Each structure stands twice: as C-alpha cells, then as structure tokens.
Amino acid sequence: MEASPEYTEWGGQLVLVRRRPPPPPGLGEALKAGLRRSCACSLQGTWAQLQALFPAVHWLRQYRPREALVGDVMSGLVIGIILVPQAIAYSLLAGLQPIYSLYTSFFANLIYFLMGTSRHVSVGIFSLLCLMVGQVVDRELLLAGFDPAQDGLEPGANRSSLNGSAAALVLGLQDCARDCYAIRVATALTLVAGLYQVLMGILGLGFVSAYLSQPLLDGFAMGASVTILTSQLRHLLGVRVPRHQGPGLVVSTWLSLLRSAGQANLCDVLTSAVCLAVLLAAKELSDRFRHRLRVPLPAELLVIVVATIVSHLGQFHERFGSSVAGNIPTGFMAPRVPDAGLMWRVALDAASLALVGSAFSISLAEMFARSHGYAVRANQELLAVGCCNVLPAFFQGFATSAALAKSLVKTATGCHTQLSSVVSAAVVLMVLLVLAPLFRDLQRSVLACVIVISLRGALRKVRDVPRLWRLSPADALVWVATAATCVLVSTEAGLLAGVLFSLLSLAGRTRHPRTALLARAGGSSFYGDPAEFEGLAPEPGVQVFRFTGPLYYANKDFFLQSLYSLTGLDVGYAVARRKERGPGEGAGEGDPVGGRDPGSGSGAASLVPAVTHFHAVVIDCAPLLFLDVAGLATLQELHRDYGALGISLLLACCNPSVTDTLRRGGFLGEDQGDVAEDGQLFPSVHCAVQAARARHQELAAANSIL
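User: That's the sequence. What structure does it adopt?
Assistant: Structure tokens below.
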C-alpha cells in the first residue's frame, strides 16, 4: 500500500488524504494462490491441520492434572449418573429401545472429547432432537404397516401388516421387525443430518446458525416442550392412544387422551404422581441450596433405582399391566451401514434436525466460552457435532447435540476440560456392559416423569415474554409465533415459521429506519438530532440528513420520502416541473412534496418553496452499512437532480464498503485521487459542511464579479 502524506492543508485546516489500495488480483492469480496454499504439504502444516481437526491433541499436551483432574473426574461422574436415566427415558421420545440411547451417549461423549472446542459443553441426547427423531420414526413405521402406538416389547408389536406383501419387499421388511425398522429409520436420519453438519463445517457455514435468533430458539424450545409433555401423558396415565402424525398433533393427542381418560391404569397414575412430587421437591431444593451443594442431588437416578426395585418386588407388570422398559441387552451390536433408501426418504427431515442441533450446539459453546474467557470455532463445532452424528449412526446411535441442563451441571461441578466426557462415557460403558438388564422392570411412567421434569427450564421461558415484549415487540412476536406454530401445527413448521418471522422482523427494521435532520452544537464540530439533544442549531444553507440503516431496494422509497419531507423539497418533482416550464423557471408554490397533490389527503403534502432555502445537502453515511444496486441508483438520481437545481450533494463518513460500491458504480471517479471524489466524500459531517459553505461562497463571489 502506497504511503500518502499524513495531512493536507485545505482552507486553513488539516484534512485527511485517502490511501490508495493495491490493485485487486485477477481471477487467475487468486485461483493459483488458493491452489498453492491448499496443495502445499509440509510436516508443520500437517501437524497444524491435525490439531485443528482434533483440538484434544493440542490441549492434552498442556493439561495440568493437579489443577483440573479432580474437577474433571467429579463432573464426569455426575454427568454420567444423570445421563444414564435420561438416556433410558429419552428413548420413549425417539420411539426406540433404551439400549440405543446408551449407545448414542457413549459414542457422542468420546467423539466430542476429541473434536470439540468447548471445554464445558455436554454433548449427548437432547429432548428436542429426540422428539424430532421420534416423529419421523412414527411416520415411517406407520407407512411400513406397524402400529407406532404399540411398544416393541408387546405381543404382536413387532409384526408388520405388510409382511409377506409386495410393499414389504420394496421396503425391505421381510426380515425386519418393528424395533429393527425403527432404528434403521433413526440411523438413516441421523447419518444424513450429520453429513449436512459436516458439509456445513467444511464449507465454513458456521455463521448460518447465528440467523436462528435467541427468541426463535426459546420459542421453539417452549413449543417443542409442550409437544413433548403431550406425548408423555399417555405413559403417565398408562393409557393407549394412537400416535398422531401431521399438523395438529398436540390437539389431536389431547382429544384422544380425554376420550381414553377412563381407561387409565391406576398403578401408573399413582406411580407418576409420587415420582413427580419427589422429583419436583428435589429440584426445588437443589435450586434453593445450589450454592451450598458441591454436587447436585442425583434425584433422577435415585427415583429410577427405587422405582425399579418396587416394581420388581410388586410385580407391577404382571399384576397390574403396567408398561415397563423390558429387556435391555448388554454389550455392543455389530456396526451396520444405514439404509440408503431410507436416507433419501428422510433427507428433508434431516435438514431441520441438522439446523436445530447446530444452532443449539454453537450457541451453547459460545455462551460458555464467553463466560469463561476463551474462544471456540463455530465451523469446528459443526464438524464435531456432525461427527457425533455420522459415526454413531453406524453403531445404532441417533441424533445428538449440546444440552443446556447437563452443560450447566458440568460447569457447576468443577469441569475444566472435555476429559470429563471420557469419565461420563466410562459410566455409560459400565451400564452397557453390566447394569443395563437391571432396569428391566422399570415402569415407563417413571421414565415419562423424568422427561417431564427435564422440561421445567424450557416451560419457564414463557415468563420471559412480557419482559421481551417491553424490550423488543418484534422479538416477542417471533417467540410467540414460533411456539404457537410448534404446538398447533408441528415442530418443523414452527422452526420454519420462526425463521420467516425473524427475517420479516429484520426486514421491517431496515425497511423504516430512523431518519433525522442534524443540527450543530454551537461552534463545535458535533452534529446531532435536535429531537435527542437540546441547544442545537441548524446550519444555514446546508441540510444534514441522517439515515440509520442500509440503503437497498426495500427501503429506497422510504429514504427518498424521508429526505423530501424533512428538507421540504421533492427534488425529482421539482426538476420535472422545471423541464415542463422551461429552464428559466424554478419550482412553483403549488408543487407538492413527493409528487402528490395537496388534495390527495397525504400527510406528506407539504409545499415546495419557490426558492430553496439551502444550497447543499450532506448525507451522514456513518450508519449506512451497505448499498445495493437500487440504493446506488437512488444516490445517482439524487446527485443528478440536485445538480440540475444548483444544489450540492455531499457524502460524509462513508465506510470502505460503501465507498467501494460508489466507485465501482460510477458515482465517483475510478481513481481515488479524482477531484470528483475529493469533492463528494468527506471524513466527517463537519468537513462536508465546511466544504459546502466554502464552495457556495466561491460561487457567490464569482457571480458577483460577473
């Protein structure tokens, strides 16, 4: 970059001189340079790439056991103890057997330990993703001829009405029972979602999840939690109702529950009431005394252990028909490639699953990184979470992401690094190899209680809506629209509605940004909005206009209307009338602002004065983030029209992006040193006003001489 003089004298004052940027490289040179960087191979570069892909390789070499080991082991044990009952319970949401949730938790902890950049996030099964997986599994089971309302352990539940038919041969069901087909659907869905996330990470699309705003995610969590609560009521009551699909799932399920309420299993109802009371009391005590408790109370584990013992001794399944978890095998199953045909069928469902999982994982990783003073890489987080889905899909695992509740517990129990995830995986492994069969007589109503209690945090978010409305009505509308659509239509529709409402709110804010004519504070160089500051006086003969937003195709008309209304001159209409009347006549007293007649009833129908009271217009471009083609054309038309009336149009405080757009669009000269550019762009509003006054004085002096 060529150096330029630091300052230049102009009018007795020091002004800034722009530097000349280097010429941009051609397309061929840029491609060659990129290929050289990507194809360059060295030992140091390979090691750096390995560390970037597996951050554990880097931080393990710097690990300090004396400072971090105790905290990591303690947090890992606590998370493992919490994870086991939640994994078994969340299998109900996904419509799968409990063993698959344990597989998922084991592999996800190990993979994120190697690839994650967050030190505190806990990755594993997540209730919202389990719900989304379960909805897809139920739909595919129904299409395959199975009854999704039946549990796999019940007689006849593992038989399809299509077995032996042509449809069964097409779907490949002749040797596959209900549970087998359900996990095939789940693994195919998980693999596609993981591939989406890995591809997003490779392409550097980690920023995409940032477009899912916090109000959208909170509203989605609230709506999905209501759906989860509704889906678990049948287990809490011990009734058999059809598992509805499609729009209106929540409403249809509630109607079915009301019709079947008289068939409730008394044993399940009493068990649910007792477990809910105990879990709620334990959670309230934990929240109240959380500062005194070194380790949170493992209420879920205690309830599950006691409930399993009572159910086994009381023979609740045999005597009262209470639904139980059933046989949970030990060990690992042989890896299996997910079904390619099913992957095509669920490709669209996997997109929303990948987006939700990515958004929650990245937002949680960034939240904990900010609170603990380190940085995470969004693209690497996508790769890590994607691999937590891709690899377990070959070992009968299903979708995972970061979970807030377990991450908070992990932080509270002294976690320092992701070594705690290895400890949690070891706890899950012990259950997989030894303890899993002990949960055979665990009632499903108890598992449903664990799920319902885990929704407390999401359901409580409804209390934030009044505060959110006071802060930003647009964000509150996004929250309500997302939650309502999730409940009344479906979770996928809720996510789509949230994205659309977020984009509309963003467009609405940029569609009508705030505008003002600035005035000067005494003899200083400060220019502000008179509606915001007192004691400001307008600059004689110069109108300083501020537009606090980007100038693009959607708000260019509002930009012009605001400028014309505040300055009192519709320059486009004035130029047109001048052409009609002839070059010797100015704007008449009946010329309306905005090209509308005063009798049209518009509030903008101010009259254009016969002689304008200003000779220059300065646009404060500091809030102008960017220009598109329509915005550039608007400025070009303004420059031409103002010039036809002898009024100068000057731009102040343009950022480099806006300046580059103006130059490439022909608004300025191609060379930065052009007189045209130096006479139109200024580093501050005060410089532009001073230049306009000096130019006007020169013209006035020249006219007086003539």
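The chain has two domains: 55-146+177-508, 515-578+611-704.
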